[in-house]
Write a structure and sequence with these properties.
By secondary structure, the protein is of the alpha+beta class. It has helices at residues 3-12, 16-28, 71-84, 89-94, 97-104, 106-109, 112-131; strands at 51-58, 61-68. The protein has one domain: Sufe protein. Chain: A (Alpha-Beta Complex). It is globular, with a radius of gyration of 14 Å. 28% of the residues are buried.
Amino acid sequence: MNINEIKETFELMDEWEDRYRYIIDLGRNLPDFDEKDQTEANRVHGCTSQVWLIYEKNGETVLFKGNSDAHIVRGLVYIIITIFSRQTPQQILDTDAAVILTELGLSQHLSPMRTNGLFSMVERIKEIGRSFC
């Protein structure tokens, strides 16, 4: 699944309640996340819920995996990973996640705390991208 498919599915839903359920469903699609990776070093600070993010360089691109202890946040992790995974470090830096998240309507429909957490994930991914440039 790519971010355009997520956008298209969002557009088919009239009610935000349906979109919230869809976000939770997306979180169920996250690959298994090893408990040993749920460390302080992998934790994303700035999120109300516990969020962990790991990455690996795969050739020219970076692959991300993540997890959270909250159902809706797991779905948000899925969306963020979908935006940034399989991109080169430069593409990661060039991607304007704020535009994408606004197009999805997330900034307008999440609590300020959740929105801050979302952008904390984005900033952590950007830091990782910068580390490879």
